[in-house]
Every structure is written in structure tokens, then in C-alpha cells.
Amino acid sequence: MFSLVFSRRYAMAHRLIAGLSEKCAIPHGHNETVTVTLRARAPAPLDGGANMVEPFERAKSTWHRWIDGHVDHSLHLSADDPLLDWFAAREPHRLPRILVTPGDPTTEILALCMMAKLNALLAAEGGRLTCAAIRIEETPTNTVRFEGDPLAFLPRPAPRRPWWQRADMSINDLALAEAGR
Question: Where would I find the H helices in 35-168?
Fold first, then answer.
């Protein structure tokens, strides 16, 4: 079976406040690389003409636009992080650049959220492809790889569909939370 594999590099900052890594409770940054493996939902022989599962440009364009325009140079925080309230009160214009995760924004939860987001984007584009695996290199020596159904491993979301299940460019639900108050 064919796989389409491509990577994108981005810069990000985060902090982990659950207490398992005291030095990571201070906001700090990483230059990360995300690599995704896509497969056809309905594998078929090559057609003898174009001979492609899907053109790379079509397969990766929306994903790269999301990474480049919304994830690159974003701040990743837990939904429970008090810094969210600080930004809402003092710098609300920066809220769209904050990627919010359920619990600490670890590489593991980021892999799940990103894979779910990519699958939502692919489904909205006709559903010909699905993400079979995701790999995030946090540092040159630390990498997380996930294969499977990310929704089965993510904490259960609030009643609304969270950002990682929507085929839009969002990285948080802060505007939705404000509208629901």
C-alpha cells in the first residue's frame, strides 16, 4: 500500500504546569518538525495515466497553510493555565495565537490533536486520504510517534466539537467559550 509522507518545521513555545517537570513550568520554546503519513481510504491500483494516489500539492496544501499560519510561532497552553486569563485581560488580540490543549501541552497530546485536525481537514476535502501516522520531533533527541485513532486517546471534550475536530484554521476554542458565557 502506498503512503504519502511529508514534513513541516515550525517554532512554538509552551509550558507544562501539571507538576511532572518543574523546569518545563517556565515558558520555553522548541523548533519542532511534524511528519505525517497519509494513506488512501480506498486503495486502488495506479491508473496508468497520472499514476498518483493524490498529488502532493493537493494532499498537503491545507495542512501546510494551517501549520504555517496558525501553529508556527504559537504559544501552547493547557486549558487550565492561568496565563489564558492573563492574555484575555491584557492582550486579547494575542488569543488566536495560543494553541490550547486539554491538560498540559505535551508532544503526546499535540500529536493527537494535530492528527485529529488533519483528519478533519482531509475529510472536508473529500475524504480520499486519512492520516495513518504522525511523528513530532520535539528536539533532535525526543520524538513522539502515534498511529491509530487519535479520538480514542484524547481526553473527552466538552459538549461542543473542539478545535481539533473541526475543518477550520482554529487552534483553540477561546472565542467559542467567550460567546457561550
Answer: 56-66, 83-90, 107-124
Closest CA relative to residue 67, chosen from 15, 32, 107: 32
Rounded CA-CA distance 96/65 in Å is: 15
- Select from 59, 84, 65, 56 the least CA-distant residue to 10: 65
Closest CA to 68 of 109, 9, 143: 9
Contact criterion met (CB below 8 Å) for 88 and 79: no
Q: Yes or no: say if 27 and 15 are a contact pair by the CB < 8 Å rule.
A: yes
pLDDT in tens, the chain (181 residues): 899 999 999 999 999 999 888 899 999 999 999 999 999 999 999 989 999 999 999 999 999 999 999 999 999 999 999 999 999 999 999 999 999 999 999 999 999 999 999 999 999 999 999 999 999 999 999 999 999 999 999 998 666 899 999 999 999 999 766 555 4
* Bridge partners, 100 (sequence order): 77
In this prediction the pTM is: 0.94
Is residue 73 within 8 A of residue 30, CB to CB? The reply is no
Residue 68 · residue 45 · CB < 8 Å: no
What the chain holds in terms of domains, given with CATH numbers, is 4-180 (3.30.479.10)
Beta bridge pairs of residue 13 = 29, 75
